[in-house]
What does this fold into?
Amino acid sequence: MLLAHELTGHLSNPSLVLIHGITDSRAMWHPLVHRLAAGHQVLAVDLRGHGSSEPGDAYDPISYASDVVETAASLGIADAIVVGHSLGGVVASAVAAIAPCRAVVNIDQPLRLSGFKDALGQLEPMLKGDAESFQQGIDLMFGAMYGPLEESEQARLHAQRRADQAVVLGTWASVFESTEAELDATVEALAGAITVPYLALHGIDPGPGYAEWLQRLVPTATFELWPETGHYPHLVHPDGFLDRLAAFEAQVRG
It folds into this structure.
């Protein structure tokens, strides 16, 4: 599926592909896009069922990632650094597992989905309820993750959010329906195929032992925790994020 997208920057520059999180859209990246485009060709996409993109018949990581790969290829983009936030971090990881890319940056998305199952299970009745209950569940989830993000940015993200119940439930279906062992096996199969440099940048601590678990699974991974920055560390500290991305890119170039 070809995705709705924005393409900025110059064709001769290195490419970045930006992937948003669940219920968000490519507009999430707007505070950073123009600064990134000064030195890159930047592709920001709307995942299927999000933003201006059409819905799909499946919402698993490989289906999401295949759309990103197809859209990038249609624009002549190859060998990109793929940057994903939240759900986009899982999708970026899946892109690296199924197609060539230069590197991955995963912003605040733990890959150990079995650890997410308990937290999500507490909201499952609300998310599977009527429209009002579903929206309350979404608001509870995101309200707890903004951290120190400025209120104006919170309002901007809220205004562009598209919380489609079928898309959300389809995306999280495997978490609801699989055992922890099944989730771990699925993640290990996907992440085990990643061989490119991988930066995991977290604003919310994913818990004890996570960094070691990730580095065993993805030997090319670097784990960083930016304490007390919440779920949007790249928007809380945009200058710091852009500096870290530039340093990572220099490392990838060698």
